[in-house]
Specification:
By secondary structure, this protein is mainly β. The protein is built from no helices and eleven strands. The protein has strands at 2-7, 10-12, 18-26, 33-39, 49-54, 60-62, 70-75, 80-85, 94-102, 104-107, 111-115. Strands 2, 4, 5, 6, 9, 10 and 11 form a seven-stranded mixed β-sheet that branches.
Length: 117
């Protein structure tokens, strides 16, 4: 079983920054695929949008909407995934979810990010 706990969400003004963390525990290989998704207001849980992925070894990828503003990273020694979010925009407002893929998808409970002046 895998357990994911996100933290670091909050309310910031446009142009501000936040850093999200996802602590993973349980039984899974260190090479497991990990990613961040988000659910915007008014969207259903099944309509979560992929934000970024980090593969063991350093390879990363980003959605076009966040490329150049968000940075995903992982500390495999600490089983922790991060998402540094800079130059935040109101459209980034969402619940952000951590995802780990090992035989099936595992999800955290989500952390709210609100970007508003």
């Amino acid at each position: 079983q895998v357990h994911l706990v996100e933290s670091g969400g909050g309310t910031v003004q446009p142009g501000g920054s936040l850093k999200l963390s996802c602590a993973a525990s349980g039984s899974f290989p260190i090479s497991s695929f990990m990613a961040w998704y988000r659910q915007a207001p008014g969207k259903q849980y099944e309509q979560r949008e992929w934000v970024a992925s980090a593969i063991y070894g350093g390879s990363t990828s980003y959605a076009d909407s966040v490329k150049g503003r968000f940075t995903i990273s992982r500390d495999d020694a600490q089983n922790t995934l991060y998402l540094q979010m800079d130059n935040l925009k109101p459209d980034d407002t969402a619940v952000y979810y951590c995802n780990l893929l090992w035989h099936k998808d595992y999800w955290g409970q989500g952390t709210q990010v609100t970007v508003s002046s």
